[in-house]
UniProtKB/TrEMBL annotation:
This is Ammonium transporter. InterPro entries: Ammonium/urea_transptr (IPR029020), Ammonium_transpt (IPR001905), Ammonium_transpt_CS (IPR018047), NH4_transpt_AmtB-like_dom (IPR024041). It comes from the Bacteria. The chain crosses the membrane at residues 20-39, 51-75, 103-125, 137-158, 178-197, 209-226, 238-260, 267-284, 290-313, 325-345, 365-390. It is a multi-pass membrane protein. Belongs to the ammonia transporter channel (TC 1.A.11.2) family. PROSITE patterns: AMMONIUM_TRANSP. PANTHER family: AMMONIUM TRANSPORTER MEP2. Gene3D superfamilies: Ammonium transporter AmtB like domains. Its main location: membrane. Residues 20-417 form the Ammonium transporter AmtB-like domain. Keywords: Ammonia transport, Membrane, Transmembrane, Transmembrane helix, Transport.
Length: 445
């Protein structure tokens, strides 16, 4: 995220920057439906709608919470751990043309841009929990997690008085606040709720790889707004550098993942291409404003191989990360954040240099380590505690019979595909058995 800056006293609203940031906000919003398709194609057919809904519900819940208090606590001036601005509670006292802290965009524009980040972060967690979580429990978890975990971490990393921001931790667009945060939370929750029925025994292959590729494409497209927009329209070329590095690192990671799985498993898979692209997007998110395009190639390639290797750890260690949120988002976020400490050139978003540049100091690397492991530990522990409390009260999981028969029907009374004829949803599902019985009776007659 762009640092706090001081412009001339007569700084005025820029319609160009405002328009650009509104477009970027819309692109980031599109990433949540893109994520829904990406995850929805990766699950078995009986869980498709539930997976879509676990992302879409975040658009509703987090939007309301962000307006009520989330934005105030995340970006208000408070202390190093949490912010607060009474005027921003309910967005009740913000002028339409009031500018965001030294920039040429309105506070409302910055607020809505950050809202889209807050929406997608808990949605990322959902992929680890596929097939087995009650929708009502998930919705409550999203509300609690966004409040207790996301809002404070966003303040640490991007708030003007947040401890990580003041320390000098570089996180351009969310390697710590979004991806490590979500990945660590996913690990904490799955350690509490346990494995799917049939984990390691039954085939759990993606039911629609075209849907996965569509989702990956929407994520890639939206990520340009996610990353380039995080410089808030500053006219110094850093946003353009981030745009270029986003494309470069994603391409490198996709190729690296495919090369790894060809050597390891003997095939180039579409799922590997999609997952590799996402791994590259994750890794370049914290680092893209600080590295050169050659550095972006290195970041992407390292992340592609490391994340491809990491997704297999769930079988080795026995935790059921359904759609590899830990392996891609947590591991990719860690790699991208730490590699800033090696590849930062000092010519991008800040003058800080990594081990391979400048005076070859480890100073920035230590700062990155502090940010990475603080966010990881906080999110892991608090998310596990939240999941445990919900599990002991509401119950986090559907019953074993509901999981086996299909969570879509159990939780939503719908199915993603109607193979019985025209129509769908509840009507098609309910009518099919009656139609079959009628046909049988007719044959008997």
């Amino acid at each position: 995220m762009a640092p706090a800056i001081m412009l001339a006293a007569d700084t005025k609203l820029s319609s160009a920057n405002t328009g650009f940031m509104l477009i970027c906000s819309a692109l980031v919003m599109l990433m949540t439906p893109g994520l829904a398709f990406f995850y929805g194609g990766m699950v078995r057919v009986k869980s498709t709608l539930n997976m879509l809904m676990m992302s879409f519900i975040s658009l509703g819940i987090v939007t309301i919470l962000w307006v009520l208090y989330g934005f105030s606590f995340a970006f208000g001036t408070g202390n190093s751990l949490l912010g607060y601005n009474a005027d921003w509670i309910g967005l009740s006292n913000i002028g339409l043309t009031e500018l965001w802290d030294g920039y040429t965009i309105p506070v409302f524009v910055f607020m809505v841009f950050q809202l889209m980040f807050a929406i997608i972060t808990p949605a990322l967690i959902s992929g680890a929990l596929a097939d087995r979580v009650k929708f009502s429990a998930w919705a409550l978890f999203v509300a609690l997690w966004a409040t207790i975990v996301y809002v404070p971490v966003a303040h640490w990393v991007w708030g003007a008085d947040g401890w990580a921001f003041k320390l000098g931790v570089i996180d351009f667009a969310g390697g710590t606040a979004v991806h490590i945060n979500a990945g660590a939370a996913a690990l904490g929750v799955i350690l509490v709720i346990g494995k799917r029925v049939g984990f390691k025994r039954d085939p759990m292959r993606p039911h629609s790889l075209p849907l996965v590729m569509l989702g990956a494409g929407l994520l890639w497209f939206g990520w340009f707004g996610f990353n380039a927009g995080s410089w808030l329209g500053n006219d110094d070329g850093v946003g353009a550098l981030m745009f270029v590095n986003t494309q470069v690192a994603t391409a490198a990671a996709m190729l690296a993942w495919l090369a790894y799985e060809k050597i390891r498993h003997g095939a180039f898979t579409t799922l590997g291409a999609a997952s590799g692209a996402v791994a590259g997007l994750v890794a370049i998110t914290p680092s893209g404003g600080a590295v050169s395009p050659l550095g972006a190639i290195a970041v992407g390639a390292i992340a592609g191989v490391a994340c491809a290797a990491a997704v297999g750890l769930k079988f080795k260690f026995g935790f059921d990360d359904s759609l590899d949120v830990v392996g891609v988002h947590m591991v990719g976020g860690i790699i991208g954040s730490l590699l800033v400490g090696f590849f930062a050139t000092g010519k991008g978003q800040s003058t800080a240099t990594g081990v391979f540049y400048g005076d070859h100091s480890f100073d920035q690397l230590w700062k990155q380590c502090a940010g990475v492991f603080a966010v990881l530990a906080y999110s892991l522990v608090v998310s596990a505690v939240l999941a445990l409390l919900l599990d002991k009260t509401l119950g986090m999981r559907v019953t074993e019979d509901e999981e086996i028969s299909g969570i879509d029907q159990a939780e939503h009374a719908e199915t993603a595909y109607d193979f019985s004829g025209a129509g769908g949803g509840v009507t098609g599902t309910v009518a099919a058995p009656a139609l079959a019985a009628a046909q049988t009776k007719k044959v008997d007659a």
